[in-house]
Amino acid sequence: MNFASDNTAPVHPQVMAAINAANAAPSMPYGNDGLSRDVEAKIAAIFERPAKVFLVATGTAANALSLAAMTPAWGSIFCHAAAHIEEDECGAPEFYTGGAKLVGLDGDHGKIAAADLDAALKAAGAGTVHHVQPAAVSLTNATEAGTIYSPAEITALSAVARKHGLKVHLDGARFANALVASGCSPAEATWKAGIDILSFGGTKNGCLAVEAIVVFDESLAATLAFRRKRAGHLFSKHRYLAAQMAGYLDGDLWLALARQSNAIAAKLGAGLAALPGAKLAHPVQANEVFVDLPEAAIVAIEQAGFNVYRWFGPGTQRLRLVASWNSLEADAERLIATAKAAI
Hints:
Blueprint: H1 13-22, H2 34-46, E1 52-56, H3 59-70, E2 75-80, H4 84-87, H5 92-97, E3 101-105, H6 114-122, E4 133-140, H7 151-163, E5 167-172, H8 175-182, E6 197-201, E7 211-215, H9 224-230, H10 239-249, H11 253-273, E8 279-280, E9 288-292, H12 295-303, E10 309-310, E11 318-322, H13 329-342
Parallel strand pairs: 2-3, 2-4, 4-5, 5-6
Antiparallel strand pairs: 1-7, 6-7, 8-9, 9-11, 10-11
Helix pairs in contact: 1-10, 2-10, 6-7, 8-11, 11-13, 12-13
């Protein structure tokens, strides 16, 4: 009955079993273990090309270190105005880049349009010593609005970035959810569409604490090993990060878990949108639902024991509901029925 966040979900048993298996014997530290090498090979196979892989424990570290590899201290990073790096990472991208500036762009349903990015870059003052210099674009898939960029949209945005000499980062904290919603391959959603570095999320989708920085443009990988160490994310017992990722990827568990959470969100979205006085704020495409509901329905949901999040703060009538890998269809049905009865 907890639809407040996918961070509330427990670790999937397969991931926990992989951690326990890694605990059975000594292993070399700092990523010099066989499990870490196996995970790097598995990720390369999933994305259909060689890639440099750097495991870290948090999405904030993955995003900030990725952007630092792309952006000088005098650079700027273009992102959606509601992006996680802009609103929810406590200045980490600015800190790890040494002071680069985030430039937020508006766009419907959490997405940037290629034409708007092009216009912003044309006006950004490239080459003018008085301005920060455009260096990177950061996209989020699935977005903070729970919507999806298609491969075609990412390709168009990447083409604009390339035209202006910028690198492209993808915040994939919910990459699995975006992937199963789009129906494309991991390669089509990333490097084939122009992504240079992916923050490949695991924590929100069944892991304990692991994200993979996947570097497709190997010219950007040279400093990342040092940046990760300096940031305190090169674990001495690195095999426990690798074990999580191994368990997550084994048997395509990561995709199965995302399908489950997406399906529950779709049920919630359809059921709530059909109620009198209800309105979806964004299309439901991944595992998040943003819906405006009558106050009576929200109060009834809260009083019934559901943990939900009022998106604009106490007393407001927009809910964000997030389905997790372990969310139950019965709970979704009960929430909808509770709201319906109150209305």
